[in-house]
Amino acid sequence: MNIEPATPTVKNPPEQFAGDVWVDMIAVPHEPQQRMSVAVVRFAPGARTAWHSHARGQYLRVTQGVARFGGRDGTIIDVHPGQTLYTPPGEDHWHAAAGDTFMEHVAMLENGDDPAATTTWKEHITDAEFAGRPHGEAQS
């Protein structure tokens, strides 16, 4: 067993994120049979991802601020600290910092069979998609 070395905070690329978003990796696979990745992701107010999906789904635990999640069917869910959102494999979605405060979540997912295909990035969301009205709140 060992203590993992600290890795530098990385700013996420504008091809996949609108606004300022930073990631700190907590856990990454060491062995070929391992798949789990965990990261702390921080969004500046109004920052958001582009549309994307994950080969094996994703869990996002909100730790600070309010997160806004959207799906292709127009559903928008606001998620609060202490709540966890699950997105199934292959489901297109986006996430963002709702309102005028920073948002932080812990992202947990498994790599795909081809690690390069773990996340499929698509087009940026529109301002109208981001500003849509939430259809529900995540359940605790």
TrEMBL record:
UniProt-listed CDD domains: cupin_HNL-like (cd02233)
Domain Cupin type-2: from-to ranges: 40-101
TM annotation in the entry: none
Cleaved signal peptide residues: none
Protein name: Cupin type-2 domain-containing protein
Species lineage: Bacteria, Bacillati, Actinomycetota, Actinomycetes, Micrococcales
